[in-house]
Task: inverse folding
């Protein structure tokens, strides 16, 4: 049963999973990073409090995060179709993945930025730094390590979500696992794909933590 | 024109439990080139006061004038430009932990829009001044507290300020390091003509380098003037408390010794006088002569020499023997000998 077709399929599955995970992470950060910065900055004890902006983002993030991903995936089918023309396949999965990941990433960014010592922000203000300078030169720089650790966690979560997308024909390793393991009772293929998923998470986790500690200057 | 002028400043914080008046009707003037100390217990409002001087905190009412310019009248943008004239150092140094020493010192120049090359060259000069040029590539986490504060001072100098605000800048440091940081601040004041404002709760810091001092208690400025005058004649209770608390470790303590042999009760009934020897009175053994003259012993509850603005001052607390007439005569004798007298009403012990 380990025909070359299946091996090709699994290799293709790895490629699709990587494509979905990394693509969604990048796009997720494109939305989630600014959103997280806005959340941290506009919070009551942020550098420029704004109750309205904070509340709106807060509610949006909470709503999306409280919808189970599988349901979000189905809810977003018309939206996905409108954007890329189809709702299945790896690219079709990227859309709901980004929608789910962005608020999650925003929360991680928010909490990373809030860890930055207020004293350093005050010192920057005392030097006449503008809020934009404080964001780019103090907050993002000082929170660097925590942001990288956060992105490692985000990648792991998105990879898990991408596997879930297999249930609705999303492609990737998760798709293979469900098709063979669940629909055809070919447990061995499912086990292999699951092991591959675990290895992928492990690799991302290790790389992320290595980079984070390599860049940390606090010790 | 004073470098800093504060007029009728009030600051109220709105909190859930109601409004807290942190500062009430503070008025003071700091002249150019002064080293001006602001002393008070923690919670007295001194940190809020210093933050009002560069508008990190906006006063609820009142005015702050820097070089004659009213800060409240400036726009947010003008204020940011103005802040580069007023540098600040902090108790916990507040360095960028992810940037090396050189980049930390470059930071204010970067904000001012200087070129990278110019900033680096100037930063090396300032690191030279604070004696840390060989640590330029180190990260703050690899430095000691004293070194971190030196980096913070170099960073403060980098913005080419006219005023330097020090918020408890030595409170996290040990006595030796404190002394070296204070002498660095002194030389910066002398060499660059930078007006320095020092916030502290330690009288020793004030004595060591300040020319003027203001005492803040519960948000109110209770006393201000030359350090020497206040050390010699403290008028407020807060000032007296500060001076009495100012005691280096290991200073000789009469009352502690007396406690052992049960004389403490008797001593409590005595009149207590704090006397200060200025440089022209210390030659004669005044106390010994007084004891010989009156044939009555006095109790020395505390004796100490302190450095006030570079001049050694002797300080003693005497417990006078009972008898009002005798006490009055002794007082007259001490005054005649040119000593500064101060009645101590509280218990000497802390």
Result:
């Amino acid at each position: 049963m380990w025909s070359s077709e299946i091996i090709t399929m699994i290799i293709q599955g790895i490629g699709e999973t990587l494509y979905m995970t990394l693509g969604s992470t990048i796009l997720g950060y494109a939305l989630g990073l600014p959103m997280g910065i806005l959340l941290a900055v506009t919070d009551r004890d942020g550098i420029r409090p704004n109750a309205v902006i904070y509340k709106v983002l807060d509610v949006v993030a909470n709503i999306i995060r409280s919808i189970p991903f599988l349901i979000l995936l189905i809810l977003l089918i018309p939206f996905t179709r409108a954007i890329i023309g189809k709702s299945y396949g790896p690219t079709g999965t990227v859309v709901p993945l980004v929608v789910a990941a962005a608020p999650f990433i925003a929360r991680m960014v928010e909490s990373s930025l809030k860890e930055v010592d207020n004293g350093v922000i005050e010192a920057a203000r005392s030097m006449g730094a503008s809020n934009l300078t404080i964001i780019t030169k103090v907050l993002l720089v000082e929170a660097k390590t925590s942001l990288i650790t956060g992105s490692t966690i985000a990648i792991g979560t998105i990879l898990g979500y991408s596997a879930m997308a297999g249930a609705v024909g999303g492609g990737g390793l998760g798709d293979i696992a469900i098709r063979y393991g669940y629909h055809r009772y070919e447990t061995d293929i499912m086990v292999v794909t699951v092991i591959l998923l675990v290895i992928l998470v492990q690799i991302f986790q290790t790389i992320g933590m290595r980079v984070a500690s390599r860049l940390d200057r606090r010790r | 024109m004073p470098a800093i002028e504060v007029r009728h400043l009030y600051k109220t914080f709105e909190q859930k439990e109601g409004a807290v008046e942190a500062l009430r009707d503070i008025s003071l003037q700091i002249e150019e080139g002064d080293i001006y100390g602001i002393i008070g217990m923690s919670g007295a409002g001194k940190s809020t006061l210093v933050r009002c001087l560069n508008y990190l905190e906006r006063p609820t009412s009142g005015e702050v004038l820097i070089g004659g310019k009213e800060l409240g009248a400036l726009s947010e943008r003008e204020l940011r430009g103005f802040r580069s004239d007023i540098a600040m150092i902090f108790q916990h140094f507040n360095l960028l932990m992810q940037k090396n020493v050189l980049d930390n010192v470059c930071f204010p120049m970067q904000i001012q829009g200087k070129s990278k090359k110019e900033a680096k060259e100037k930063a090396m000069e300032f690191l030279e001044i604070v004696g840390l040029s060989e640590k330029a590539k180190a990260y703050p986490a690899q430095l000691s507290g004293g070194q971190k504060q030196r980096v913070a001072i170099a960073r403060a100098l980098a913005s080419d300020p006219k005023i330097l605000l020090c918020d408890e800048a030595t409170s996290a440091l040990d006595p030796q390091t404190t002394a070296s940081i204070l002498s660095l601040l002194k030389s910066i004041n002398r060499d660059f003509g930078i007006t320095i404002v020092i916030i502290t709760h330690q009288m020793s810091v004030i004595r060591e380098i300040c020319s003027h001092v203001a005492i803040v208690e519960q948000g109110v400025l209770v006393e201000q003037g030359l350090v020497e005058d206040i050390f010699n004649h403290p008028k407020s209770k807060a000032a007296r408390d500060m001076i009495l608390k100012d005691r280096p470790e290991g200073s000789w303590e009469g009352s502690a010794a007396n406690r052992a042999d049960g004389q403490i009760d008797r001593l409590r009934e005595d009149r207590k006088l704090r006397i200060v020897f200025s440089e022209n009175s210390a030659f004669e053994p005044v106390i010994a002569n007084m004891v010989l003259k009156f044939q009555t012993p006095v109790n020395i509850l505390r004796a100490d020499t302190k450095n006030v603005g570079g001049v050694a001052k002797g300080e003693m607390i005497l417990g006078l023997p009972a008898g009002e007439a005798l006490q009055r005569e002794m007082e007259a004798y001490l005054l005649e000998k040119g000593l500064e007298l101060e009645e101590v009403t509280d218990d000497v012990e802390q």
